[in-house]
Amino acid sequence: MVETIPSEDAVSRMIDSPEKWSPEEQKFIDERVFLFKTPDEVESVVWRKYASAIADVHVIGCGRQAEKRRSEAHSSWTYEGATTAPVSAVRSIQNIKGDRVEVSHAPDEGIHHAHLELHFSDGKDFRKQRKADLKEAVRNLFSVIEAHRCP
Amino acid sequence: MEDFSSDSSTFEDYSISTEWANVVERPAIRRQPTRMRPFASSLSALPGVAITAEVSASREQRRTLAGIFWRLQASKRISPITYQYAQWFVRALPRDHLLPKVAPDGEGGLQMAWEVPNSGRTLITLNDSVICGVACAGTPEAFYLEDVRFDGVISDAFLAIIPK
Fold first, then answer.
1. Is A106 exposed, middle or buried (0-12, 13-18, 19+ CB in 10 A)?
2. Contact B111 A77 (CB under 8 A)
3. B28: how many CB neighbours lie within 10 A of its CB?
């Protein structure tokens, strides 16, 4: 059942290498943390209601790593940890065109699974710029990793 | 349609340090009589050594960028047309401007980013031949530049948002 996510809650983004995290430099690959690819323009996060401790998020991450590594193409895929932000902060993002970011429950991939969705206001002008601006604002919110090494 | 989805099996370090010194072109060397050259060269070499090193470093960084573009294109993370225009863009970027960090945008385009102290980041996206720009991205002061077809010359509007 799809629930409404209250603004008082928090969501976490799972971070993997080599795509989103550089193990050598120990820093985010900023442009890759959130892509919001068209046409869906959504990104997955963990709703902390169903993974209240960071260790619970890491359990989900370790499971994802095991699943990914079953494929030879992703044999180096590594869960590196998670970064967290309050839902209220995500929902307060708004660019100069009035575009916003919504957080919604998407339990198709597990009860903890939620989406960040870009919501564009009217008008198609500056679409790419507006999207880049929103992505940057989202990226700024998720700025600290809680690192983890899967057993 | 090409699949530009990420392939995490091949890691590329897209990050290039933004702490590059401003580069000053080596001044033209005036032709002098042959017998004067060694002496003249030794004098001009005092400031020239540092400048030459910087120019050399800049060239190396541009070569590194070109290599990254090539790998992104070869792994189909950016389109062949974007690849071509990315090379032209970097060649057209005056040497007193910083080079960007680059990454595929996940849709065949290339995103270039520059840190601007206390003003967020400048983001310029290259989609085939079209460039679009955001200054102060992610901040309330953000502003957007109109999409333009890149013709080999970076317009003043875009240069103004790229840090030196």
1. middle
2. no
3. 6
CA distance readout (Å), A64 to A1, A96, B51, B124: 23, 37, 50, 33
Task: Please count the residues of chain B.
Answer: 164
Amino acid at A89: A
Rounded Cα gap, residues A103 and A87, in angstroms = 7
User: What interface predicted TM-score (ipTM) does this complex get?
Assistant: 0.81
Beta strands in chain A (DSSP E): 10-17, 21-22, 27-28, 42-47, 78-86, 100-105, 113-119, 145-147
Q: Which pLDDT does position B62 carry in this prediction?
A: 85
What are the residues of chain B with a beta carbon less than 8 Å away from any beta carbon of chain A?
A: 5-11, 13-15, 101, 103-107, 111, 113, 120-121, 123, 125, 127, 132-134, 137-140, 142-147
Proportion of chain B above pLDDT 70, given as a percent: 66
pLDDT tens-digit series, residues B24-42 = 334 444 444 444 444 333 3
Q: If pLDDT is split at 50, 70 and 90, which confidence band does B56 have? A: low
